[in-house]
Amino acid sequence: TVQETVEHCLHKILGHAVRVTASGRTDAGVHALGQVINFRTPSKIPEEGLLKALNSLLPSDLSARDVLEVAPDFHARKMALSKKYVYVIDTSGIRSPFLSRYVFHLPGALDVHAMRRSIEMLNGEQDFSSFMGAGSSVKTTVRKILATGIFERDSRVFFYIQGSGFLRHMVRNIMGTLIQVGRSMLAPEDMERILALKDRTHAGPTAPPQGLYLVEVCYKEENPVCAKQD
């Protein structure tokens, strides 16, 4: 796993076993541009030196963007206020072999206007049972969505969502439902009905992982991690 790879590299650099804590898990095939992890070490290696050493050992498909010393009580997951995700769809007629791992290729135009009307119903605090992946065990299925957006550029559609937390496969299940709206298989207003039913079987299929990106994990403004991300 990515976590095991990072821990192995840190072990080689620091000379002791390291257990990292991430802001959250990402499914296989999902990309993380803004994942945040924390770990403890007695090492006095400067931040810049540790960053260079880590990137020299990580495989070519992994890269650390920054290293920052934080307070002893910092916790990447528990202190996170919200997360931002982006899902990318390529609607061009021919699949690009260079982009196949980084976008969901879905040839044919999507009704982005209808999709935009549909995502307005996701905002706020509500029960997202209809978009929770199978096998989940959580105390509550209520989540708060802070912002959503969707736009089209050339042959690509970008869906943006920010929330205080997400259920398993929630973003991909929402995306699968939005695609059905974009293809006129569902009306924009059906999103409200699906939410009210609290039943996964009424929502659309799970969109594939390769189009999804964790772009940012947000913390309090005074937290140095927040300042670094800006």
Written account of the structure:
The chain has 230 residues and is of the alpha+beta class. It has 2 domains: 2-76, Alpha-Beta Plaits; 82-216, Alpha-Beta Plaits. Helix content is 26%, strand content 21%. The strands form 2 sheets. Strands 2, 4, 5, 6, 7, 8 and 9 form a 7-stranded mixed beta sheet that branches. A two-stranded antiparallel sheet has the order 1-3. Strand 7 and strand 8 form a beta hairpin. Helix 1 packs across helix 2 and helix 3 crosses helix 4. The mean pLDDT is 93.
Which short descriptors sum up this protein?
21% strand, 230 residues, Alpha-Beta Plaits, 6 helices, alpha+beta, two-stranded antiparallel ribbon, seven-stranded mixed β-sheet, 2 domains, 26% helix
